[in-house]
Amino acid sequence: MMTECTSLQFVSPFAFEAMQKVDVVRLASLSDPELRLLLPCLVRMALCAPADQSQSWAQDKKLILRLLSGVEAVNSIVALLSVDFHALEQDANKEQQLRHKLGGGSGESILVSQLQHGLTLEFEHSDSPRRLRLVLSELLAIMNKVSESNGEFFLKSSELFESPVYLEEAADVLCILQAELPSLLPIVDVAEALLHVRNGAWFLCLLVANVPDSFNEVCRGLIKNGERQDEESLGGRRRTDALRFLCKMNPSQALKVRGMVVEECHLPGLGVALTLDHTKNEACEDGVSDLVCFVSGLLLGTNAKVRTWFGTFIRNGQQRKRETSSSVLWQMRRQLLLELMAILPTVRSTRIVEEADADMEPNVSVYSGLKEEHVVKASALLRLYCALMGIAGLKPTEEEAEQLLQLMTSRPPATPAGVRFVSLSFCMLLAFSTLVSTPEQEQLMVVWLSWMIKEEAYFESTSGVSASFGEMLLLVAMYFHSNQLSAIIDLVCSTLGMKIVIKPSSLSRMKTIFTQEIFTEQVVTAHAVRVPVTSNLSANITGFLPIHCIYQLLRSRSFTKHKVSIKDWIYRQLCETSTPLHPQLLPLIDVYINSILTPASKSNPEATNQPVTEQEILNIFQGVIGGDSIRLNQRFSITAQLLVLYYILSYEEALLANTKTLAAMQRKPKSYSSSLMDQIPIKFLIRQAQGLQQELGGICFIFIAKWIFFSPTPHFSFLSPQLFNHCFVKTTFSDRRLLMLGWYRIYDCLMFFSAFSAVPVNYTQVMQIIEHLTLLSASELIPYADVLISNMNQLLNSGVPRRILQTVNKLWMVLNTVMPRRLWVMTVNALQPSIKFVRQQKYTQNDLMIDPLIVLRCDQRVHRCPPLMDITLHMLNGYLLASKAYLSAHLKETAEQDRPSQNNTIGLIGQTDAPEVTREELKNALLAAQDSAAVQILLEICLPKEEEKANGINPDSLLRNVQSVITTNTPNKGMEEGEDNLLCNLREVQCLICCLLHQMYIADPNIAKLVHFQGYPCELLPLTVAGIPSMHICLDFIPELIAQPELEKQVMNILELSDNCWLQPSLLFGGAQAGFEPTTLGFFTTVLTQAKRYAFFMPTLPSLVSFCRAFPPLYEDIMSLLIQIGQVCASDVATQTRDIDPIITRLQQIKEKPSGWPQICKDPSYKNGSRDTGSMDPDVQLCHCIESTVVEIINMSVSGI
């Protein structure tokens, strides 16, 4: 179509814009041939009544009439407009119906009668109405054939549209018909029909030029009806050419039409052709051309449909045997090649640098480099060729391959864009190794790679880019050495920014060059440690960094293999970190720890890396562990401190996990000392991490979940979950404002110490200072910790205000959130009893983990100071947990020391494990003894002292008050007296101890069982049963307790069971009933002597009332038991006196007739009998006790009814 229309004159962009804007002045400036093409629209504009009635349009209309007055062809167009178009439309509709009825091939026509001459001669001899009918009939015939072709393209031969003599007249008729009959001749259908005739593009341009508003509609319609691949068919090529002519006529809409092409995924050749036209019209020397941007956007965009569509266009274009210059694909490749060649260095020496040239300056080369203004364009061209070859399957020609290699091995300036260009060139060499085909080209590549290695440091220092190509070179070299070809492919795809298929076999030659000629493993390792660390490393720094290289080298154990120390590099990198946390830091620490503990090979067990020293760790925390203000002295970022803490935790955990493996290799790496752990504010750092969860990427949850709650390491086990629930001291806005304004006095440690010196006389100053300290944050309290803790023993004196003690407790809990280990050791040492002429022992953290009971060897006054006792119990619980972890860790560390060697073992199979089992049993026994001893000491503390008993304090006051509330709702004198006993320090200490015992029993029920088997004072039973909710678990082993031979323990267990039934009958129904059998007590009546019978039944008989209240079904059995006991006692005194008979008689009557017990109580023998139990023998006293118990049971049962 391009060739058939070359001799015709098209509407110029200038003329089309004038028509589009109705610019009469521009129209007047057109030449006669240009004006001739626009006459149909101008004549209609001049003759038809306008919608615009403004004065300006009236003036423009006069100018148009004046413009048309001298044109001869106007008269023929005016004649065309004088026809009756309504009648013409009716005839056309009739002809359409006739053709539909008779078939498209029918020669019958209503518009045109039988032609006597050819269509061209008929058109010449006809008047205007007949000309309209001739053109309309021919056009309708073509349109009908198009609709019936089902998408198959055809070329219709028509004299009317082919004769060069009548083209202009035919175009006039066509434009008038479409303008006057728009419903019959939609412009999109007319445009589609014109593609099937010769000179159709010319007619189409004239038609659109005379209806300029239809430009976008026509273009979209042609594109929507077009082929997906336009260069594969004649119709596609003609459609593309027609649209190109339209866009040349209206170049301002060319890019919009190109967007329609991409949107519909039709006519890819048109999109490229329009881009080529636009590139030629707006040539840009330095910037990236529109062609590069357009094709890159298609292949590298996110729309997979567009990418597949355009890739098919490239592949199909290559399959055609002959690619002529008329092919759009050929034109695109040629234009890209010209752009590539335009930016190549003009002067380039092809000689190879000899060894003698090695002393040249680093930045001086015989190779001329890229100009700085061409670097970005060169990078864009490289990515485009990568996409064309890797995604679209373009096979470069020899010329293209040669020029690409020249561009890739050129040397850019040391700028960020230059670094990016070198990285792209390097990855393109790896991805498309076929570009290097000759030995000369291979040598050129090797020289260029050597230049990269030499210039890497200069580029990084000059460009200011942290992620330089040097790290990528190291990383690829390491991947080649470890044969991780898939990792290289991922690296290449990531750098290029596209997913392309790279066969691992294509990297074989590059692998040989890297591993044997450029980067041996020893060179890689030695070079890696000299690479500077990344300053302020964070997740915001993208790309391939030194940390990626070090990580891969650590994984492959290259450092230990070649005896290169990497510890200092890792330490420096950890110090140079910031938030947000870089994702490679934690894996780097993990693989570094593995390289410390695990040798690279069994043959060389000493081939390990060195751990970070304790002094280096302490340097990281300088300012946090010091005595001055943290905010002023903190040298390293919180990120560096958290990463070092992560390293310590992971190291200790890995050390324990690999104990057996290390012992088998006869290696024992050192663990970090407890003194180091004491100086690291672990809880403070974890609190900081909780506030930076988003920036730290979840490292806080790793600390808490893995290494704090579940770590078996003794250094951290005492950090129980409860410590994270302590509330921080919140400073209100008004208090903080007062601090800022200086209304509060600032106290230093010396003033604080002086205030404590005056404590026995004056408490005011201490109160003021500690109230001020409550306004400080946890980290700001650290400087005051030594003074506060060292003077805590002075608060044990009598007369210290309770508010001071509670505030000190509050401050201690706040300090516990930032420095728990050191705080606990200081507190234990400060609360030791002060004995004259005896030097106090200073305990260490290790002492307290080995023997947690040291905590309870404090000053006895602490036992009656609830705020300080709360602190003591908190430490005791923590050290008990730490002791368990310490012993478990000790067993793991020494697991292989006591195991007999296989050479000396001459026993049965499996006997070698016996020592290990024994050690585990001994550990469990020690822990059980330790826990039970702590419980026994705490229970002993709950007992009132002699002076407290003198003041009327009774340990069962709580139970007595509870029982009184249960039995009656009316206030009584006993209640009022009991309230005084509840408001005392002993009662508060008892509550604190009961809370701790409850937690211990729930955590390990075996502790409760062991304590009850050991036994404790019975007078504490009301307190423990009422104050420890978990005491009900004792019911599970009550039968075992009762079966013990000791009479005292049997009595205690029955009383405990009674108290449990009294307080929690509904909860403990099944277990208590199963644990208590009256027949068991009946058995004791027959085997116990008189003295033991008295000692056993006198305290236990009153508890039977509780059993009857809780379990009414036991009523009959208990009554029988009481009568049995009474009979046994009566038989013993029968030989001495008969005074006991009336009692037995009354018991029998009570059992048979319970309703008559009021009459029995009125019996004179019952009322007036001797009640002086002190003068009776034990059996008589026991009988009276039985009688009282029976009466109380009956009273309880009758009142319940």
UniProtKB/TrEMBL annotation:
Q: Name one GO biological process term.
A: snRNA 3'-end processing
Localization per Swiss-Prot or TrEMBL: Nucleus
Q: Which UniProt keywords apply?
A: Nucleus
* Record-linked InterPro entries: Int2_metazoa, INTS2
Question: Is Nucleus given among the entry's keywords?
Answer: yes
What is the superkingdom listed in this entry's lineage? Eukaryota
What main location does UniProt list? Answer: nucleus
Read off the Pfam families from this record: INTS2
Quote the cellular component terms of the Gene Ontology held in the record.
integrator complex
Please give the PANTHER family that the UniProt record associates with this protein: INTEGRATOR COMPLEX SUBUNIT 2
Please give the family membership noted in the entry.
Answer: Belongs to the Integrator subunit 2 family.
Record-given protein name:
Integrator complex subunit 2
Q: Which organism is it from?
A: Otolemur garnettii
